Amino acid sequence: MKRIRFRHKQNRPKLNLDIYPVNEKIRAPQVRVIDENDEMIGILDTRKAIEMAKERDFDLVAVSPKANPPVTKFINYGNFKYQQEKAAKKQKSKEKKTEVKDIRLSPRIGQHDLDVRMKRAGKFLEKGDKLTIEVVLKGRERKYPELAKDVINNFIKRISDEIMPIKIEQEPKRQGNKFMAIIFPDKVAAQKQIEAAKNAEETLD
Known about the structure:
Layout: E1 30-34, E2 40-45, H1 46-55, E3 59-64, E4 71-75, H2 77-94, E5 100-105, H3 111-126, E6 130-136, H4 145-162, E7 166-175, E8 178-185, H5 187-204
């Protein structure tokens, strides 16, 4: 029977725009000011800079608040906020979400079934997913826990030898009547392997 996993919905973190103080939220007594045309005005008292920005129908936004003095700019804050949120969403959409996939083995698994699971594991890892490897012990098998650990360790070794370098997040660990390990791709080692293979090909040419 196919297992169904229920995942709790996580609240998405909101963009923190407090790192860009605006108008009276700017605490520094003086600021370096850039106008709406990207022209440098110079260093002004913060109060004077705010008044100047408002006279031109802009906000004074600290675009580099940690500088000394902070660098500010005449900006429409509503527009600025929209652009920052848009950029953050675009960046987030590019980030691949890591999924956790399951591979279930057994102490008596046959070679054909083992090969099938090996191919499936390879596809998951090549996509960058984490992999949970489980061995469930039934009946008399529970008396031989070392057998389950050996099955998992041999499977992991074969993945590392035949498919790609991996890292172990969790060594085979007993949880009730099953053993479980968690692995994920070692991207750095994999990239080194690719580069080494390319160098070897260039040498042969």
